[in-house]
Specification:
The protein is mostly helical. The chain is built from 16 helices and 3 strands.
Length: 406
């Protein structure tokens, strides 16, 4: 798993470097350096967490959930608004988005709650109680993130809650009823809960799916250009296609080589047609698709699929319910981010503005996801250990020792 993570991280650093090359801001040009540093910190956390038995999650479940809710509430009340989302806390020169580490806190709390509360009393095994527990551990953070205006991050909580509920053994019929109720209130949320800008994004997306006319110089600018950039990469990428054409032109007609190169022009990213301020973050897959083509994009997706298989296999092999729920939820978190980010680039989803794990620029999410995968690695390493059984046997041995005559 570590090799897959490092490979994705290095690929992401290089992609961020490419995405920031043409930006006039020196900060974005050097964004890959900060991503490199964040990755090094994340790897240290990953290694430190992975070799420690994850039974410590029981001790930090409640504090981590309380801190997560507190950070979300603080960002809602005192946070700075960036890109129409009031979800950033700024402390001096340091800024971070609490919605991302809050996911980790909620997953830890849900994993421990669903695994251990049922052992305390038969009533706590009631399915309706567990459904209420799921609503507390995932519904409260979901509502706070939604109030911040970060619809993309809020959408991640929906499949995450479904995964926790299924692995936590809540009957499927109960989850289906909740899903149907959510679908019923979706139109109300669209008309009364979304800003005009976000409503416009969804309407443009639906119009483009139906081949209706869309103004690609205004509301359809980003969606049209990022999808076109991916298509322009072809099989092997814009740069490779351009180089092959140059060799053919030079053989056939060397005198016209320079003129034809000028007519061919630069890539869409070099021309600034992919929104420059978000090319290194939200729209990084468009830069990758144009630069490396279908071959490079498929390689990246296969690397993500390998990571998903590794985390899902760990969930199946976990020694207890805590590890099983945590690993399954982490798998769903990775899949939701991957599907939303790549999906909006390929017009499979509306533009939501959500990072691609390990590849998009963002230190908070990178460190958070590496720490979570470190816990997943700990679940795999300690899958054969039985700490509860060992603790009980040690208690029995101590009791027998005290009862032995001197």
């Amino acid at each position: 798993m570590l090799a897959t993570i490092i490979g994705l991280w290095i690929f992401g650093v290089n992609s961020i470097r490419i995405a920031g090359e043409t930006h006039p801001s020196e900060f974005i040009q050097n964004a890959w350096r900060s991503q490199l540093n964040y990755g090094l910190v994340g790897i240290v956390i990953y290694l430190a967490v992975s070799f420690v038995d994850y039974k410590w999650l029981r001790w930090v479940a409640i504090p981590s959930f309380i801190v997560s809710i507190g950070l979300l509430a603080a960002s809602l009340m005192f946070g700075e608004e960036i890109n129409d989302t009031k979800g950033w806390l700024i402390i001096g020169s340091f800024q971070f988005q609490p919605s991302q580490p809050a996911i980790a806190g909620a997953i830890v709390a849900a994993s421990v709650a669903f695994a251990d509360l049922r052992k305390l009393h038969p009533f706590l095994q009631n399915h309706f109680f567990n459904l209420m527990l799921l609503g507390i551990t995932t519904g409260i953070p979901f509502a706070l993130v939604l109030l911040q205006g970060d619809v993309g991050s809020a959408l991640v909580w929906i499949p995450l809650a479904a995964a926790i509920g299924i692995v936590g053994r809540i009957p499927f019929r109960h989850l289906a009823i909740v899903a149907l109720l959510a679908i019923m209130v979706t139109p109300l949320f669209f008309f009364f809960g979304l800003s005009e800008q976000r409503q416009s994004r969804i309407e443009v997306y639906l119009d483009m799916l139906q081949d209706k006319p869309v103004d690609i110089r205004d509301e359809g600018y980003a969606a049209h250009n990022i999808s076109t950039a991916v298509g322009s990469g072809g099989l092997t990428g814009f740069q490779a296609n351009s180089a092959r054409a140059t060799e053919a032109e030079q053989v056939l007609d060397p005198a016209l080589r320079d003129d034809r190169i000028k007519k061919r022009g630069a890539s869409m990213h070099e021309q600034g047609l992919i929104p420059r301020n978000t090319a290194h973050s939200d729209f990084i897959f468009a830069v990758i698709g144009e630069r490396y083509g279908f071959r490079g994009s498929a390689f990246l997706i296969l690397a993500f699929l390998l990571l998903l298989v590794q985390t899902l296999f760990t969930a199946f092999c976990a020694r207890d319910a805590t590890g099983r729920i945590f690993a399954a939820a982490t798998t769903m978190l990775l899949f939701a981010h991957m599907f939303q980010n790549i999906g909006m680039t390929l017009l499979l989803m509306p533009i939501t503005g959500i990072p691609l794990p390990f590849v998009s620029h963002g230190g908070t999410f990178l460190i958070t996801i590496m720490g979570m995968l470190g816990i997943v690695q700990s679940i795999w390493i300690h899958r054969y250990e039985q700490p509860e059984k060992e603790e009980a046997e040690r208690t029995v041995r101590e009791a027998r020792t005290r009862l032995q005559p001197i």
